[in-house]
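[09:14] KT: can someone run the structure on this one? pasting the chain below
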Amino acid sequence: MYNLNDKIVLVTGGATGIGAIAVKLFLEEGAKHVTITDVDVNAGKQLEKELETKFKGRAKFVKCDVRNDEELFDIYKTIIDDHGFIDVVLNNAGIMNDSPNVYRTALNVNINALITSTLRARDLMRTDRSGRGGIIINISSIAALMQNRYLPVYFAAKSAVLQFSICIGAQENYEKTGVKVITMCYGATDTSLLSKEKMKPFDEEMTDELYDCIKQFPLQSANFAATGLIDACKRGDSGSVWLVNDNKPVEDITPVVKKAYGLLTSLVV
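[09:31] RB: done, structure tokens below
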């Protein structure tokens, strides 16, 4: 079990939804300090104010567009300058919008920024380069475990997160660096991500069909999803994949994922 007490944590996309609840849970677990980043300044500042009453001086909001390398790297530099190290990074920022005018932004947030953040965190944490090890948690989705004709860009992005995180989190990489990489897959969760304002199909004519499709999935609470995340963080091995769905206890689905990829690998090896 990984002990979160006294740890230095960074959460991207942490101003609202699952990310905001995860921030609170990290603090309740005893994290020494949590840096929260988001593009939603009002929500971020409000969360910081709320946390200050119970966790005085232990949480800080900083506006950051994770697509902007300079802004993202400045966050990491500030954390290192202030605390000397970083222990846990939760790459939580995400967009579920396949519409023609947004999908490129979504890809940059969901894939490019997540990979960039992972690589930066790993470099700072790795024990073979003066770091003290740590955990990187990348947010994928049940979208990586199935297909859907309405959101092909989003499903492709979350599949990329799954593959990237499993590969970079391989046991050999962990043994060399002391940095765990864990993948978290959420089921449909009651957050604004599923709202009509934020979730868009690639073809506008499919809008009603998309929302009818989403209604078929059991909707879990954001608190339940975040609690599962914390549990996976404490229990997970590097390269492991975790699922929290339908308000059921978080589950290590690594054996199933390995079996699935094993079937695909058998076609070429």
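[09:33] KT: thanks! The mean pLDDT is 97.
[09:34] RB: yep, looked fine to me
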